[in-house]
Design a protein that fits this description.
Elements lengths: L12 E5 L12 H6 L5 H8 L4 H17 L12 H13 L11 E6 L1 H9 L1 H15 L14 E7 L7 E6 L8 H8 L2 H51 L3 H8 L3 H21 L8
Parallel strand pairs: 1-2, 2-3
Antiparallel strand pairs: 3-4
């Protein structure tokens, strides 16, 4: 049974730039192998950079967890050839997952010959490199889903000490020859775009409110004019007619006036219905 839980499905592309090792002979004795390590590269770095010691210890701890998860926490590498050790280490690296937003990334990992020799005899340094990738691969791509899903091209180089590590990365979209317009759009800050959308929605809300107020005023004005007319008619009939029935007829509500009021109210309510909550729809 393979001790490594290989996670190659839906993984970003990882390229291992393995140097040709000049010697792949096994150590002659265990004592020679152990004596070859004068000081761990991790301890040497923490001695020179005590301000970074806590972070380095966290990375070493994360790397040990990778080995423990794969059942090789106490495995000795002294009986491995360099080719066997490289296959062993790459197998461990393959068990470290990437964040889902990094699915289109391409990574090129280079470890120098002296770096491989140091890792093989220095389990803490080996754990630090594994822990570095645990931390690095967990970082989300903040631009994923915003039109920049092409991923990044990343190079990582490791030597025989922590100080020798360096890495570079850049967006693959930069290689696609985007137009100046696309570049300007990418450079525009997300908060500026959001502010523009907010101003647009507020302007539309003000326009809807103005139309609603104008419709309401027009309806009230029309109803007032009709009531004034009916009032003058009732007053005229009261002064010129002795027929009580005529006065009663004029006192009844006018169906046309009621219908007009209802139509105006319905129009205002319709504006309210479709205008509610628009300012909140900002993403």
């Amino acid at each position: 049974m393979n001790p490594f839980n290989i996670m190659g499905i839906n993984q970003p592309t990882t390229i291992y730039n393995t140097p040709t090792i000049t010697s792949s002979k096994k150590p002659e004795t265990s004592s020679t192998f152990k004596d070859a390590l004068e000081e761990s590269a991790v301890d040497a770095f923490k001695r020179r950079r005590p301000d970074c010691a806590r972070h380095v210890d966290q990375q070493v701890k994360a790397g040990r967890a990778v080995k423990e998860r794969n059942g090789v926490i106490g495995l000795s590498t002294e009986d491995m050839t360099m080719e066997e050790y490289q296959a062993y280490f790459y197998g461990l690296l393959e068990t470290i997952p990437y964040d889902s937003t990094r699915v289109n990334d391409t990574s090129i990992i280079t470890i120098s010959e002296k770096g491989w020799e140091q890792m093989r005899k220095d389990p803490d340094y080996e754990s630090w490199i594994l822990g570095y990738f645990v931390e690095d691969r967990s970082v989300r791509n903040p631009f994923f889903g915003w039109g920049n899903d092409a991923g990044c091209m990343i190079t990582e180089h490791f030597g025989a000490s922590i100080e020798e590590h360096h890495g570079e990365g850049f967006s693959k979209a930069a290689l696609n020859g985007n137009s100046d317009k696309d570049a300007d759009d990418d450079e525009e800050d997300w908060w500026i775009k959001r502010h523009k959308r907010m101003k647009k929605l507020i302007r539309e809300q003000v326009e809807r409110t103005s139309k609603k107020d104008a419709a309401k005023k027009a309806a009230v004005k029309e109803e007032y004019a009709k009531q004034q007319y009916l009032s003058s008619q009732r007053q005229h009939l009261f002064l010129t007619s002795d027929t009580t029935a005529s006065v009663n007829d004029m006192a009844r509500p006018n169906p046309e006036g009621i219908a007009a009021s209802m139509a105006a109210a319905a129009y205002v309510n319709t504006i309210d219905l479709f205008g509610t909550g628009m300012v909140g729809d900002i993403h």
